[in-house]
Amino acid sequence: MELASLAVTRALRRRLPQGDGHTVMLFPGFMAPDLSTLPMRQVLGSIGYEAVGWGRGVNTGPRPEVIRGLEDRLRTLAEEGGSAVSLVGWSLGGLYARLLARVHPELVRVVITLVAPFRFDADDRSRASGLFHTLEQPEERPMWRAMRKPPLLVPATSLFTRSDGVIDWRACLDETRPNAENIEIRGASHFGMGHNPGAMLVIADRLTQDPGTWVPYSPPPRWRRLIVPHGPGAGRNGDVP
Q1: Number of independent structural domains in the chain
Q2: CA 194: distance to chain centroid?
Q3: 49 and which of 17, 19, 124, 229 could share a cystine (Cβ 3.0–4.6 Å)?
Q4: What is the pLDDT of residues 79-120, one digit of tens each?
Q5: Domain limits for position 147
Q6: pTM for this model (two decimals)
């Protein structure tokens, strides 16, 4: 159903705020290629952004060579575009985005994550628990800890849904800080969030924000039943209203 809603998303393009031409890099979820973010990139490209994929093929998990390659790509994109790059990460891709923003805040304008479990703990019980244990090899644990360690210096928006179906949505909640927010997309799913019209509305709006004058998201009146901002909330161990 969410894949079919791409038609709605494309129809909304005329109502989305126009971009300023800066570069936006999109990260796919686990075992997904750049093709999975193509619909989002097409919409963002149509409203004035230089939307690009992560350029690493299928996302098979965090490896030292992958992280190094992403750092190089981020530097190149910032140099070629002449400005900081916005990062949009879906699921596991959101962990890469937050890691890059933490390590290179001077190269990142804003981070937007979609159902990204950056507060996932090893003892969580969800459909993703087995995957976590598979990926968390001893030599890679420092990277996982770095991905989850707060806080970020750049503005960050975390999109989550209680009907996720794969992960515990509370693992997507950012902690309290002035330039962070958690936004609930009601009725969405883990694998469909990147095709969801509500998510696309939020992404397009957040990309227009100047980091120096960043303000929390406020959805259009007709969307307020489906898009619910919660602010930074209580963090991983808390809840949102």
Answers
A1: 1
A2: 9
A3: 19
A4: 999 999 999 999 999 999 999 999 999 999 999 999 999 886
A5: 6-231
A6: 0.89
